[in-house]
Amino acid sequence: MARLPRINIANIPQHIIQVGHNNLNCFFDDEDYEFYLASLQKAAEQYDVDLHAYVLMPNAIQMVATPNIANGISSMMQSLGRRYVQYVNHRYQRSGTLWGGRYKSSVIDSEAYLLTCYRYVELKPMHEGIVESPELYEWSSFNHHTGRKKSKILEDHRLYLALGDTYEERANEYSKLFRYEFDRGLLTYIAETIKLGQVLGGDQFTEKIEKIANHRVRPLKRGRPKKKSKPTTA
Predict the structure, then answer these.
(1) For the chain, how many structural domains are there in total?
(2) Residue 230 is assigned to a structural domain of this protein
(3) In the prediction, which pLDDT does 174 show?
(4) How big is the CA angle at 22 (ends 19 and 25), to the nearest 5 degrees?
(5) Which stretches of the chain are DSSP H helices?
(6) Over pLDDT 90: what percentage of the chain?
(7) Is the pLDDT of residue 46 over 60?
(8) Using an 8 Å Cβ cutoff, are 140 and 125 in contact?
(9) CA end-to-end span of the chain, whole Å?
(10) Cβ atoms 107, 200 nearer than 8 A
């Protein structure tokens, strides 16, 4: 099934992923992760994007972010991509492709899925077997959201802020979301949604996005369209 046109609408969160070429590593030591995060912060500020959650894996990145202007995320990712690839090529005396194509994204129905996407992103190192528990992974937003270490590059979404009146209260409430294993069906649904660039949300939210974007955001049904029957003559 083909990917749908990318949606670039202001004030609606997006789930973003970008994977290394042929799934090869894009980060090789701590300095690389630190440079990417510093570049991400600059690009997000330049193009007016609020970064809510992230994880940097050895061979991929994932984020949840809200653009405050149309095309903010696409501009941010283009700028970030150029800056980081130039850095890697210079530092490691290499050339050629680093990322496996353009980033992928899907818009999120905040009320239904935003904090679920936070968890999906922040649990990735554990699900991939890199660490036994998400707080052990340094290059994600998990420790910020659970009160262990504040991050300067994150802008807390209103739904996270609604978890409590103080940072400690919000961190405690957010931590409770990790008491239960992530539903496998939901994992698959989110992965398929981002893969195809579909909307992460129900029919009502999808219809809203189609009206704002002024184009189809749902895949067409498979199979050939039905032929119209010819009128019978008497």
Answers:
(1) 1
(2) no
(3) 98
(4) 60
(5) 30-46, 72-91, 110-122, 124-127, 142-145, 158-161, 167-176, 184-196, 203-213
(6) 77
(7) yes
(8) yes
(9) 44
(10) yes
Written as six digits, the tokens of 31 are 């300095």
Contact assessment for residue 104 and residue 83, using Cβ atoms and an 8 Å cutoff: no
Both tokens of 25, joined, read 């590593």
Neighbours of 82 (CB within 10 A): 12
Summarize pLDDT for 106-135 with one digit per residue, the tens.
Answer: 999 999 999 999 999 999 999 999 999 999
Give the Cα-Cα-Cα angle 160, 62, 70 (nearest 5 degrees). 75
Backbone angles phi, psi at 133, to 5 degrees: -150, 140
Output the pLDDT for position 232: 52
**Which CATH number fits the domain that encloses residue 74?**
3.30.70.1290
Token pair belonging to 176: 């409770």
Burial class (CB in 10 A: 0-12, 13-18, 19+), 55: buried
Domain membership of residue 23 (yes or no) is yes
- Say if 219 falls within a structural domain: no
Domain of 124, in residue numbers: 14-213
153-195: per-residue pLDDT in tens?
A: 999 999 999 999 999 999 999 999 999 899 999 999 999 999 9
